[in-house]
Design brief:
By secondary structure, the chain is an alpha/beta fold. The chain contains 9 helices and 10 strands. The chain is globular, with a radius of gyration of 20 Å.
């Protein structure tokens, strides 16, 4: 098998980067894989030391077939860095496996990603392979399932799919009210609000545009029945991630076997995710209420 190139995007979190790399090295396919590491430049002098520490560590990494380190001379930001790196590798190699610096992978992550990329390489209906799955209640009887929404905590794609990606806010004009509700999983999760925040300039992200492109084309994302990636960045250190345990998963201790299944949206998966999104949003509502009560209590205590 020709193993797909791996793109790893890093910034200023040394400990997270070390955990990500060490976990990835435990995949038996690592020694046959080429690793491309995209190191973003510091936003300001405040981050210079941390970025330098990460870059010094990168030069000491081993355990892969080849390692190429791309050190940005200016700060791209996560969205531009990912779009630029994924586009480059897709154009050169036709496919890519993508990781960020806060993702702990199972020892079977690379096998699943490479097997999926090869198995579905000519299936144009599938645009994305997710290595992670949300901790929804179990519903599947097969080793994999399909959703329209991608999950980008350890993922892969092909050039044939990525070439349609467009980070253009005008894409919002193609949605009607019913589509927005479906895009938000029956109004259970605020994906549409992420597009609105990008439009207003309050955030600059890329993932929701990738989702919108897949959604509008009525294409699919492949998921494993058990998660092969755990996001370890929900400790308040990430650019877009606050501290929470709502996304905690248990990594699969066994390989995920790719078998033929109907290439269509899993209704059971959709409904399970609606239930899960509503549950975590109720957690957030309770947390906001408790914070307000705590603020009021402190103000009253100071009277």
């Amino acid at each position: 098998m020709n193993f797909s190139p791996i793109a790893l995007f890093v910034y200023n979190r040394l400990v997270h980067t070390q955990k990500t790399v060490e976990a990835l090295k435990k995949n038996s396919e690592a020694q046959s894989s080429v690793l491309y590491i995209f190191s973003d430049a510091p936003k300001s002098s405040i981050d210079e030391n941390a970025v330098s520490q990460v870059r010094n560590y990168l030069k000491k990494i081993s355990g892969f077939k080849e390692i190429f380190i791309i050190e940005r001379n200016e700060n791209y930001g996560l969205a531009k860095s990912i779009i630029d790196g994924v586009t480059d590798l897709c154009n050169r190699f036709g496919r890519v496996i993508v990781l960020e610096d806060d993702l702990e992978t199972s020892a079977f992550f690379l096998k699943f990603m490479n097997d999926s990329l090869e198995f579905f390489k000519n299936e144009n209906q599938i645009m994305h392979v997710s290595g992670c799955r949300y901790p929804v209640e179990s519903f599947e009887s097969t080793s994999t399932f399909f959703l329209t929404v991608p999950l980008c905590w350890g993922w892969a794609t092909w050039q044939r799919a990525w070439c349609s990606f467009d980070k253009n806010i005008s894409i919002m004009k193609e949605f009607d009210r019913q589509m927005i509700s479906e895009f938000d999983f029956d109004d259970s999760y605020g994906y549409w609000s992420q597009l609105e925040l990008n439009k207003s300039g309050k955030i600059n992200s890329w993932f929701v545009f990738w989702y919108a492109n897949i959604f509008l084309q009525r294409k699919l994302s492949l998921f494993p029945s058990k998660s092969l990636v755990k996001n370890i960045g929900h400790d308040g250190t990430g650019v877009h991630c606050g501290g929470t345990s709502d996304y905690d998963v248990v990594l699969s201790l066994d390989p995920i076997v790719i078998t033929p299944i109907p290439i269509k949206l899993s209704n059971d998966a959709y409904l399970a995710h609606v239930k899960y999104f509503r549950k975590i949003n109720s957690h957030k509502l309770i947390e906001r209420i408790l914070r307000k009560i705590n603020v009021i209590f402190r103000l009253n205590s100071n009277d």
